[in-house]
Amino acid sequence: MNSTIKRVLTTIIAPPLLFALIFFLPHASYAALSVLAMLVAIGGAYELRNLANSAHGTTGGMPVAITALLPLAQWVQNRYLPRVEVTFFTFIILSLVLCGMELSKGKEDAYAASVLRLANGILILFYPGLLITFIQRITVFQTPGELLILFFLLIFGNDVFAYVFGIWLGKNNRGWASVSPNKSIAGLVGGILSAVVIGGLFVFFIPTLSGAISSPKAIVLSALTAIVANIGDLIESAFKRSAKMKDSGTLIPGRGGLLDSIDSMLVAAPIFYLLLAIFGVQ
User: Fold this and answer.
1) Rounded distance, CA 11 to CA 198, Å?
2) Positive/negative CA dihedral, 71, 276, 261, 28
3) For residue 253, which of 59, 84, 49, 10 has the smallest C-alpha distance?
4) In this predicted structure, what is the pLDDT of residue 106?
5) What DSSP element (H or E) covers 57?
6) 99 CB-near residues (< 8 Å, 6+ apart)
């Protein structure tokens, strides 16, 4: 089975499973989604640590499982302490713990690589640990299920149609992004426009969303989310180029590693959440 077929099968199977989890398991402030976020944070941290190790030969000293504390903190914040930034302070505390651990770890090389280890470690906490919590933050709005589906439709729609338009019309306009030479302008534009159409139609036909998000806002929300999703994909490409690796891992059939599949949503989630807040969505 070639990689294209694997990619198509993954695209067909994964989104319905995710949508089913959102619609059928919203209990306890989307506890099931939070557990998934914790697992993804651990897997993503593991892959990012491997990338950092390949690029620099050194990593942070904190176990990757610690990143799961950030999605856990966000669930606690959503359910029990909505007025307290539990997640933010958890990130600060973990970063300070990491700095404290370096006082001991650094003795091994007379602190020659302390800055690099700390930079890698804090990056692992931030990406994907902290960024993934913004997906959980979407659940605090009054129509969380619909908004979560909208977010993932924008991400998946941009990704799928960027791939389709890239193959169809992108042969002669590739290379616009030096960090990822195979990406084409046709794929970029086709993915963004497709996301705008998908987002606009979804908001228009879902009454709970059409009353809260006007058509112009839906277009802006969809377009900016898709644009930032593409930037997230390029950021991941930069990580892999630094490590001289084609994929971040091998977990996802046809796509490579876990980070290869979630890079867009990690970076887009904070922007999507911020735009909802700016637009006054309750």
Assistant:
1) 16
2) positive
3) 10
4) 87
5) none
6) 118
Among 269, 271, 274, residue whose Cα is nearest residue 37: 269
272: which 2 tokens? 């999507």
Q: Could you identify the residue written with the tokens 């999507």?
A: 272
Six-digit token pair at 181? 């030479």
- The mean pLDDT value for 149-162 works out to 96
**174-229: pLDDT as tens digits:** 989 989 988 999 999 999 999 999 999 999 999 999 989 999 999 999 999 999 99
Spatial distance between the Cα atoms of 100 and 112, rounded to a whole number of angstroms: 16
Report residue 155's pLDDT band, with 50, 70 and 90 as the boundaries: very high
* Residue with the two structure tokens 């277009």: 219
What is the Cα–Cα distance from 106 to 104, expressed in whole angstroms? 5
The set of long-range contacts for 210-216, using a CB threshold of 8 Å and a minimum separation of 24, is 212/142, 212/143, 212/281, 212/282, 213/279, 213/281
